[in-house]
Amino acid sequence: MRLSSLGFLLHEAWLNIRRNGLMSLATLGTVTVALTVLGASLWTIFRLSEYAQFQPRRFDRIDLFLLPDVSRERAETLRDQIAHLPGVARVRLIPREQAWADLQASEPLLTEALEENPLPDKLEVEVRDIAQIQAIAHNFRDQTAYPDVERVVDAGEAVRVMLGLARVVKVVGGSASAGLFIATLFLVYNTIRLTVFARRREIRTMQLVGATPGFIRLPLLLEGLFHGVVGALLASGILLLCAREVSRFVASLRSPLIGDVPSLLSPWHVPAVLVALGALIGLVGSYLAIRRFLRPI
Amino acid sequence: MRLSSLGFLLHEAWLNIRRNGLMSLATLGTVTVALTVLGASLWTIFRLSEYAQFQPRRFDRIDLFLLPDVSRERAETLRDQIAHLPGVARVRLIPREQAWADLQASEPLLTEALEENPLPDKLEVEVRDIAQIQAIAHNFRDQTAYPDVERVVDAGEAVRVMLGLARVVKVVGGSASAGLFIATLFLVYNTIRLTVFARRREIRTMQLVGATPGFIRLPLLLEGLFHGVVGALLASGILLLCAREVSRFVASLRSPLIGDVPSLLSPWHVPAVLVALGALIGLVGSYLAIRRFLRPI
Amino acid sequence: MIQLQNVTVNYGNEWIALYQVSLCVNKGEFVFIVGPTGAGKSTLLKLLYREETATQGTVRVAGHDLNHMPSREVPLFRRRLGIVFQDFGLLPNKTVYENVAFALRVTGESSRTIRRKVPHVLEMVGLAHRPDAFPHQLSGGEQQRVAIARALVNDPPLLLADEPTGNLDPDTSLGIVQLLHHINVRGTTVIVATHDHTIVDRMQRRVVALERGRLVRDDQQGAYRPLLMLSEPMRS
Amino acid sequence: MIQLQNVTVNYGNEWIALYQVSLCVNKGEFVFIVGPTGAGKSTLLKLLYREETATQGTVRVAGHDLNHMPSREVPLFRRRLGIVFQDFGLLPNKTVYENVAFALRVTGESSRTIRRKVPHVLEMVGLAHRPDAFPHQLSGGEQQRVAIARALVNDPPLLLADEPTGNLDPDTSLGIVQLLHHINVRGTTVIVATHDHTIVDRMQRRVVALERGRLVRDDQQGAYRPLLMLSEPMRS
Ligand SMILES: Nc1ncnc2c1ncn2[C@@H]1O[C@H](COP(=O)(O)OP(=O)(O)OP(=O)(O)O)[C@@H](O)[C@H]1O
Ligand SMILES: Nc1ncnc2c1ncn2[C@@H]1O[C@H](COP(=O)(O)OP(=O)(O)OP(=O)(O)O)[C@@H](O)[C@H]1O
Ligand SMILES: [Mg+2]
Ligand SMILES: [Mg+2]
Fold first, then answer.
1. Which domain holds residue B191?
2. How many domains is chain A partitioned into structurally?
3. How many cross-chain Cβ pairs, C to D, lie less than 8 Å apart?
4. Do residues A114 and A81 both lie within one domain?
């Protein structure tokens, strides 16, 4: 293909976009709306799975409260002994003085009323695999094996809930993402197909005048690409605005846990991912749509 | 309008659907896909908010463990006294014998090892408003007001998390539902607009031959209604199939909590709601789309 | 039936398609509108069925002032016209039969009347054998005849035909024009924009000639070329 | 240049548009194809640019066997033709200038050539003053001339024109046919399907007549009607 032809085809694509006002707007509208929904869903699913994966980590700890009469040395021996158990990642000994100090800092009224430190020494056991936490906690409840341990506190049911949730989010969210991507592609393809359909007589005329399929296709592909990218930018704008509102709202709740989960996604990933998706969807959508009307005659 | 005309217009709508194969398929496809996404999202949001509202209720109870030396009569007095507090819905006294019996039933090995009942009497306090639970629990911790209470256990942070979650789901999910509805309407409208656009010369010819706007509009509205309803039925089918898979998967996790939240929605509400939405969207979409091309000439 | 007074039509801001045209056609007349391509013939007809409106001047058709007709009344007005469009204006998704029937449907005719009238008018234009063909399955001349049949089917008091024989061979053209003549004799006012000099010359009816948007001739019993020019050789 | 041997074209299963037509046209000839409406003239032309293919028989154009031409080669083949379609086939979203230029664009002509050729050919058909109009802003005859200009612009060795004067007045028609004649003299083979008996009679070139899909006449220097019938009165 000659350079002058390429220039012409680019110009051609641009003229089509301008002169087919309604069809361009329709395609752009569909791409924007569909990508906004897709983007919002993917983002939500991604965040949900980040939350879901983060939540159980809050509960990956078993607290062992020791009997009051256990000496510090025995506590330390116990700590080292537990640290070598399979499945245990780390053990920290929280001496009763430190616990008391912490409590004094966080609840001064309460500690003043109590006057004397009622807290026992505590071992904080972190497990390697959150799924094993109950089995491990159960072992510590064995009084003969651990006579020094008075009370075993694990997150129990909460962990199982969170773990289940995380898997649900991962599997269902993953399938939903794939489904949404296909749905978006289909919606855009469908719209482009209608715009190509509206121009089928033109395409036919071009063929009769001697235009090669490539010559007809390229401007249409460029149009698809343009609409995909511009639609993606618009969708990003909408999404970032909405996201700002949502995070303001969530922050206004001042709820712990929510909002303090770090994210791998920075806001500037959104336009990047969406533009990539938009370009892909615009190109694939128009390629599929054109194919149908470029049968040789 | 005469009856024969009405018959004709119905026939006309049906012919249009059959003869504009591609345009019918495109509209139907868009309606189906958009309604599937809308339906899935609404359903998910609805279920999430049911979960979110249900979860805190698991934690709407404060357990008051009484001191071992508190007599049964004092416990009962305390119970009645607390029952009259504002914000308290109900109080149950769990005598230590009953708690022991429950424990023996659920953990026979443990109770056998213990030999003797170490459990104290317990008051289970249900609060009216879950949001107040922490304030109420805090009151019980006042040793001078409640000298008989040894330990107060409430769900603490978990409740605050759950409450925050419930509000997030409600507000964000609500806005998302509204946004999705508008997005779906727009996508369908956009598609119908393109199909009407492809027929704009026909519409013009009809006008020039003396057809009234109503005469031109009615078959197109009927087409929109048809596509809306049929698309909704297809979407319902897809959704119910997906829902079955999802609930199978969730059940396979055997996670407690998940799945045992009762729902106001039975599966047969899905087609009903979707068909209503589809009919609405189809009619409104084609009405808006037609208006643009029925300018008097 | 028709009164145009000093009618000017502009397209866009400067393009003048008709300039200061005044014309009066009585009920029952048969008028040819002739003129070179781009003279404004189609524009004149479009004025009469209100696809275009006059930029200046007044247009009265069948007692209606088309400049001030509320758009609500336009469909009813048009139903009393029969129009043959230069580009045929057939509905592509309807068969020949349905295209013709459509002109009756819009007026709310009963199906019985439609079943009686449509085959009859298809017979008249020589297409009785192809009622179920779609427009794209027809030759140019066949499409043109469908357009003519649709214009005739509801016995309009006023028939406007724009180049109705452009795609027809001489014999078929003559047949169509005789059909129009026949209808005219039964009382319909007929206005035909045409280039077909053979037919205009042969019919010897009123001829209105346009040139660059101006009315330059109006002969009661005219020919395609003005009488003065008859001896002039064709340009070659 | 063109050889048809026993060509039959069916539409659908039974509709026969051409039946056992054999025809040979040499390079540099000028041929009129005449016949009543629906006779198969357009179908014959469509065969030549391969919009339709023969159900039976062979079609050879410029050395290519069109029945067995790979679809990849079709665009290149068509670029060496100039085609005037009966329905004009203009691109509605392109201006007059762009429509004509498009025929050069597809062949990869440089912009400089295009800027030189297009105004020239628009001049030839008398539309030099409206290069920026869109087709819907033109009268029927103007659209037809754009179609003709597009067919002429790349100096095709073979020109196929389907009813190129259907929407033109006699003077303009004559001008166009003289243009075709001129091109023919410069070496282009020209095939014109037409109803315009004045022009056919005047040009005295080869006339091929079709009737109901059959080739019924092939006169080297013919008239629109067979010589035998010249004395016969027109049907009336
Ligand atoms: N929508 C439009 N915008 C601009 N100019 C127009 C428009 N429609 C028509 N014209 C111009 O107005 C003039 C008259 O057009 P009109 O269609 O009335 O001609 P006509 O006499 O019917 O010609 P023909 O015999 O070729 O059909 C032409 O020069 C045409 O280009
Ligand atoms: N796609 C089609 N399907 C069925 N029949 C067709 C199709 N195209 C053309 N025909 C029929 O084939 C016959 C020949 O058509 P063609 O267009 O070749 O006629 P023509 O000689 O060009 O007529 P005209 O002078 O009216 O343009 C006509 O009777 C027409 O109805
Ligand atoms: Mg005209
Ligand atoms: Mg033809």
1. 3-55+161-291
2. 2
3. 100
4. yes
Within a domain: A297: no
- Within-domain flag for B42: yes
Collect all residues of chain C within an 8 Å Cβ-Cβ radius of residue D167.
37, 86, 163, 166, 195
d(CA A148, CA A71): 10
Amino acid at C148: I
- Read off the pTM: 0.83
Q: Which chain A residues are Cβ-neighbours of D75 within 8 angstroms?
A: 207, 210-213, 215
* Nearest chain C residue to D171, by CA: C235
Of B92, B163, B108, B153, nearest to B132 (Cα)?
A: B163
Distance CA D170, CA C96 (A): 31
Residues 6+ apart with CB under 8 A from B101: none
Residues B235 and B284 in one domain: yes
- CB contacts of B163 in chain A (<8 Å) are 255
Same domain flag for B125 and B216: no
Instruction: Tell me, using a 6 A CB cutoff, whether residue C156 lines ligand 1.
Output: no
- The verdict on ipTM greater than 0.90 is no
Same domain assignment for residues B282 and B141: no
| Whether A111 and A131 share a structural domain | yes
The answer to whether position B296 is within a domain reads: no
A134 and A277 inside one domain: no
CA of residue C217 to ligand 3 center, whole Å: 18
Shared domain for B46 and B165, answered yes or no, is yes
User: Domain for residue A296, yes or no?
Assistant: no
Last residue of a domain, one of B123, B155, B187: B155
Å from CA of B290 to ligand 2 middle: 34
What gap in Å lies between CA B286 and CA B224, rounded to an integer?
A: 6
Q: Which two tokens stand for residue C154?
A: 């509801």
* Residue of A18, A199, A209, A216 to mutate when probing chain D, most D C-beta within 10 A: A209
How many A from CA of C43 to the centre of ligand 1?
6
The verdict on D170 touching C (C-beta cutoff 8 Å) is: yes
Q: Which ligand 1 atom sits nearest the alpha carbon of residue D142?
A: 26
Most C CBs within 10 Å, among D33, D130, D195, D196, to test the C interface: D195
* Closest residue CA from atom 24 of ligand 2: D37
**How far is it, in rounded angstroms, from Cα C130 to Cα C65?**
40
Nearest CA to ligand 1 atom 29: C38
User: Cα(C4)–Cα(C48) distance, rounded to whole angstroms?
Assistant: 9
Q: Is the CB of C194 under 6 A from ligand 1?
A: no
- Structure token digits, residue A201: 């007589």
Q: Which atom of ligand 1 is nearest to the CA of C213?
A: 14
Domain end call among A155, A180, A207: A155
Q: How does B223-256 read in b/e, with b if 16+ C-beta sit within 10 Å? A: bbbbbbbbbbbbbbebbeebbeebeeebeebebe
In terms of domains, do B47 and B168 share one?
Answer: yes
Closest C-chain CA to D36:
C169
CA-closest candidate to residue D193, choices D20, D67, D23, D7: D23
What is the residue-level pLDDT of chain A in tens, covering all 297 positions? 555 677 778 888 888 888 888 888 889 999 999 999 999 989 888 888 887 777 666 667 788 888 888 888 888 888 888 888 888 888 888 888 887 787 676 555 555 656 677 778 888 888 887 777 778 888 888 888 888 888 787 765 566 666 777 777 888 889 989 999 999 999 999 999 998 888 888 999 999 999 999 889 999 999 999 999 999 999 999 999 998 888 888 777 765 555 566 777 787 888 999 999 999 999 999 999 998 888 887
CATH of the domain at A138: 3.30.70.3040
Q: Cα separations (Å) of A281 from A224, A285, C90?
A: 8, 6, 37
Say if the Cβ atoms of B209 and C93 lie within 8 Å: no
Q: Which of residues 178-207 of B touch C (CB under 8 A)?
A: 202, 205-207
